[in-house]
Structure formats: structure tokens, C-alpha cells
Write a structure and sequence with these properties.
Layout lengths: L17 H17 L2 H25 L6 E2 L2 E2 L2 H26 L1 H8 L3 H5 L5 H31 L10 H28 L3 H18 L10 H5 L11 H8 L6 H25 L7
Antiparallel strand pairs: 1-2
Helix pairs in contact: 1-6, 2-3, 2-6, 3-6, 3-7, 3-8, 6-7, 6-11, 7-8, 7-11
């Protein structure tokens, strides 16, 4: 450049497209999530169910009557269905949705690292979407293999792996949908509220449990109402809660359940992204 000439300013780099930015945030976040304390907690929870299934299989192998109820022999498929109902559908999937979904933005605020993400030339909403996809990949990577292991341990007991294999595929799809929907709902809660974890636990263990037992339309405002109609296994008849639910049974059709779950997923994920776009995050000193 000759002396006295005015330097020509370089053009600013063009911001990546929305989904390109989301994929980059996904790539950045998935490794962090897989090695986080929450993933260790998740591994312990799903690992406990695997240990229980292996223990039951060993007891059955030595002749202990662990696969009998009221004097009636239970098939491995029935016991596996109980695992899906009680451990995964009612506890693991909602809890993981709460713990991960509420932390997508809240953890960045708490660790004071959110400014590093928001100063990049990408949409703020893409940050949340990318972290949501990382959450979904992380939970699927840990949860679904545990279900397959439990299936292999339990179903061969007075049952056939091949005959119930379609139900396993349905279970894997159901749990994926559940993780996605709960995660989207609590991603919105985490983006909007200051104490999202408490609100999430109240919703899962308070509101959903109560609404499912009350006849009427309150259950239509729960996620569990639509998820339970997708379960390929019959609801276990044991227990007071299951008995009360069977009295007031009013399951929606398969099409209606998939429709409303899709609406909830996309609606809350969009609302969470919009909330992150519009909200000003002030870091506490």
C-alpha cells in the first residue's frame, strides 16, 4: 500500500445460517455434556435399572420365583413392559428432561460463560437449538442402549426375542419422543424462569401425577397423557395409582397423541428460542 493511501476496510465475515450455527453449537456442546456431572448421574440412574434386570435374570436362573405374581408365571415381555412403564416412562425420561432441559441456558448463566456464546456472530436462538440437539443426542446415547440390554436380559425368560422385537423398536421410539418433548418444555422453562429446576420437578412429580388421577380434561395438559397411549405394553394392574388410572382411562388415539406431542415439541422449542433471542441476561457479580 502506498504512503498516504486510505486503507480499504475488510468486509466483516458473514454470519452463518441459523441451522449451520445450531450444528456448530451442537458440535461444541455434545462433548461437554457427555462428560458432565449430569451425564454421570444419568449413567447411574439407567445403570441401576440394568443391574436390577441382570439380578432378576440371575435369580430366575437359580430357580427363585421372581417372575411370578399372585402365583401366576409372568413372561419376560411382561416384566420388560413394567420396566418401561415404571422406571423409564414415569421417572427416567421426565427427570432427564428436567435436569438437562432447564440447564441448557441456566448453566451458561451460572458459569458466566453465556457472554462467550452470545458475542459470536450467530443468532441467540441457534445457541439454544444447538444445545437442545446436543442434549437429545447425549440422552439417547445413554438411555436407549440400557433399554436394549434390559430387553436382552428379561425377554428370553418364557418369551421370544424375535416375537417382541417390534415392541422394542416402539419403546425406543417412544422414549426418544419423550426425551425430546420433555426437553423442549423445560428448555423453555429454563430460558424464562430464574429457578427452573424447582418448577420442573413440581410439574413432573406434582402436576402431572395429580392431573393424571383426576377425571376430566386436566390430563390433556400433561405430556404423560399423550405418551402413555404410545406404549405398546398393557398398563400393569398392580398398584393404587395404576388402578385409579385404569378407572378413569381415556387414552387418545395414536394419531392424536403424535400430533399433540409434535405440537408441544415444536411449539415450546420455538418459544424457548424466541425467549433467548429477546431476553437480556444480566450476570450476577
Amino acid at each position: 500500500m502506498m504512503a498516504g493511501e486510505t486503507p480499504i476496510p475488510r468486509p466483516l465475515p458473514k454470519a452463518p445460517a441459523y441451522w449451520t450455527a445450531a450444528v456448530r453449537i451442537f458440535d461444541l456442546s455434545v462433548g461437554e455434556m457427555l462428560w458432565s456431572r449430569r451425564t454421570i448421574f444419568m449413567g447411574l440412574v439407567v445403570g441401576a435399572t440394568v443391574v436390577i434386570s441382570v439380578f432378576l435374570r440371575l435369580l430366575d436362573a437359580i430357580g427363585a420365583p421372581v417372575f411370578r405374581a399372585n402365583g401366576v408365571a409372568l413372561s419376560g415381555s411382561a416384566v420388560f413392559g413394567s420396566f418401561i412403564w415404571f422406571f423409564y416412562l414415569r421417572f427416567i425420561v421426565p427427570v432427564l428432561g428436567v435436569f438437562y432441559g432447564t440447564s441448557l441456558i441456566a448453566d451458561e448463566v451460572e458459569d458466566k460463560t453465556i457472554t462467550y456464546l452470545f458475542t459470536r456472530p450467530i443468532r441467540k436462538g441457534a445457541v439454544l437449538v444447538g444445545k437442545f440437539l446436543a442434549y437429545l443426542a447425549c440422552t439417547i446415547f445413554v438411555v436407549l442402549p440400557s433399554v436394549v440390554i434390559i430387553y436382552v436380559c428379561l425377554v428370553p425368560v418364557r418369551g421370544s426375542l424375535g416375537a417382541s422385537f417390534p415392541d422394542l423398536l416402539k419403546d425406543l421410539g417412544l422414549l426418544t419422543i419423550g426425551l425430546a418433548v420433555y426437553g423442549a418444555v423445560f428448555a423453555f422453562v429454563g430460558a424464562r424462569l430464574k429457578r427452573p429446576l424447582l418448577v420442573g420437578l413440581i410439574f413432573v412429580f406434582g402436576w402431572e401425577q395429580a392431573a393424571m388421577l383426576i377425571p376430566g380434561y386436566l390430563r390433556h395438559f400433561t405430556i404423560a397423557y399423550y405418551l402413555q397411549s404410545l406404549v405398546p405394553h398393557a398398563m400393569p394392574a398392580e398398584g393404587l395409582v395404576s388402578l385409579l388410572q385404569s378407572v378413569f382411562v381415556d387414552n387418545p388415539s395414536l394419531g392424536a397423541s403424535l400430533f399433540w406431542l409434535t405440537v408441544i415439541l415444536l411449539g415450546f422449542l420455538w418459544a424457548a428460542a424466541v425467549s433467548v433471542e429477546r431476553k437480556e441476561y444480566v450476570l450476577e457479580q
